[in-house]
Amino acid sequence: EKSSCDLMLFGPAIALLHSVPRAPRTPGAALTASILGLADVSYRSVLYDFSQPDQLEEWERIDDVIMGGVSSSRLVVDGSSALFEGRLRSDGGGFCGQRMRLLAEPLDLSAADGVFVDCEALSVGAEPSKRVWKMAIRTKQDRGEVVYQAAFKPPTGGRATVNLPFDAFRLVRGPRLVPGVPPLSAAQTNETYQISLVVSKFEVSETGAALPGFEEGLFAMRLHELGTFSTRPPPFSRSMPRALSEREQAKAAPPLLRLLRPLLGLVFGEPTRRRRAATRLLEARGSSRLQRARLGWAWRAAAGGPLVAARKTAALGLKDAG
Q1: Which pLDDT band, with edges at 50, 70 and 90, does 237 fall under?
Q2: Fewest beta carbons less than 10 Å away: which of 47, 112, 145, 180?
Q3: Does residue 27 surpass a pLDDT of 50?
Q4: CA dihedral over 151, 246, 277, 17, signed as positive or negative
């Protein structure tokens, strides 16, 4: 059930699928691009084939709502590929991401030279160069989240493969680069628990500064495959470990966080933050409190009838009073 703020802040991303070019049914030959000039790639191992709908279930969104933002994204099947699409908003955050669900066992990538993504940035919203596109590798399972990031430029005007050598990845804390730490090495990827794709307003830098000329709004990137590359034949074939279920991930959280999660979700949860952001937006447009209340009532009544609208309005009033 969606509130009026959901209509305002999440609705555009949901409808975005119908505004992008359709993917061709035959993948064809992928071009090869590299951020560091490594063109001689003889061996590739595909970890995720985004033409397979069941593989999308092993991914989850990681948008800026975790830090109070209101950006939104999703990963959906579109023909023989997947679309990573959504809307970037600067208010309270400024990034969207999709990541592998945390693996029950680590993935050993140490025999490879790096990771690749077969993709295409689409002409939706601002130019792709007005955003920062990143890939992240997580090498620790606990909540400490040892994460290495590398920025890349997705191809435009056609499908291509971008190769990211492991030594292009640097240790980060949030959006900031950790100074004085060596780049990621292949040996450190012998316990890889997650790979993420992120579009952001933040550059990979020690200051975590915003990209000059950053523009918020809609975005879309078509994904075909993600995996590893090497100039040497792999010594063994890999199979993907099982992804943890949501219940298993919740149980892995520290005891104090598990205890406080219901209260934190009530006070700082995504629906609450989005409703507050929608309220600020309406206030900035000059709407009165009575007008906002009428808008909310009309939306809730249309979705569930007067009784549902009354119940939800009363619940929201008690929450705001608290």
Answers
A1: low
A2: 180
A3: no
A4: positive
Q: What is the rounded CA–CA span in Å between residue 228 and residue 316?
A: 48
pLDDT of 96 strictly over 90: yes
Regarding beta strands 194-200 and 72-78, do their DSSP bridges make them parallel or antiparallel, or are they unpaired?
Answer: unpaired
> At which residue do the structure tokens 């900035």 appear?
284
> Is the Cβ–Cβ distance between 13 and 72 less than 8 Å?
yes
Two tokens at 150? 């590398």
Which value, in Å, is the radius of gyration of the alpha carbons in the chain? 21
Which two structure tokens, joined as six digits, stand for 96?
A: 């969207």
Token pair recorded at residue 244: 């943890």
Collapse the DSSP code of 126 into the 3-class scheme (helix H, G, I; strand E, B; otherwise coil) and give the result. coil
Q: How far apart are CA 309 and CA 311, in angstroms?
A: 6
CA–CA distance from 247 to each of 18, 36, 61, 157, 243 (Å)?
Answer: 33, 40, 16, 41, 11
pTM (predicted TM-score)? 0.73
Under the banding of pLDDT at 50, 70 and 90, the label for residue 315 is: low
Average confidence score pLDDT of the chain:
79
CB 118 within 8 A of CB 225: yes
State both tokens at 164.
Answer: 């990211």
- In this structure, what token pair is assigned to residue 7? 């209509």
Residue 101 in tokens: 């669900």
CA pair distance 20, 77, nearest whole angstrom: 13
